[in-house]
Amino acid sequence: MNSSIDILEEKNMHLEDFYRLNESALEKFKADDFSDLEEFYKTREGILDIIRKLDEMLERVNQTEGDQSKIDLALKKSVMEALEHKNILVTQILEQDLNILSVLETAKSEIIKELTQVRSAKKAIGAYHSGNNKSRLSEKV
Q: Which of 61, 102, 103, 117 has its CA 20 to 30 A from that of 136?
């Protein structure tokens, strides 16, 4: 059971890293700095891979430890505290992810609006240049 607690604590440590990464990225994104977006996603995926492996290890440990009804009360309390901490972190991370998605969606909408305006301006300039300039040049010469 001690190994289960160790794995849970290590998992929580990586969840805290994930939380800090999200927090840092969210601040940059709110400031319209998307320069590290790809690196952000790669780092997140790396942390998630570690967490998946820890979950697999925890599953194996729990399967091999057998009867857990004889577990010391202090150990049960430690496990419950680690699980509660994990649940708090996961809730905070989900909230961050929603905020990150919102900021990215807003930025995406702004980019689409700007592209639409540029496209409209190009059409207007193209219409202005087509036909009218040649006749004016001919008249001036």
A: 117
Which residues are CB-neighbours of 22 under 8 A, at least 6 positions away?
A: 44, 93, 96, 97, 100
Give the rounded distance of the alpha carbon of 132 from its chain centre.
Answer: 52
At 107, is the pLDDT very low, low, confident or very high (cuts 50, 70, 90)? very high
Nearest Cα residue to 1 out of 98, 78, 91, 54: 78
pLDDT tens by residue, 9-20: 999 999 999 999
- Residue 58 burial (CB count, 10 A): 17
Residue 7 near residue 58 (C-beta atoms within 8 A): yes
Q: DSSP letter for 31, please.
A: T
Residue matched to tokens 């905020």: 99
| pTM beyond 0.85 | no
Residue range 90-99, pLDDT digits in tens: 999 999 999 9
Rounded to the nearest 5°, which phi and psi values hold at 140?
-75, -35
Signed CA dihedral, 42, 47, 51, 56: sign only: positive
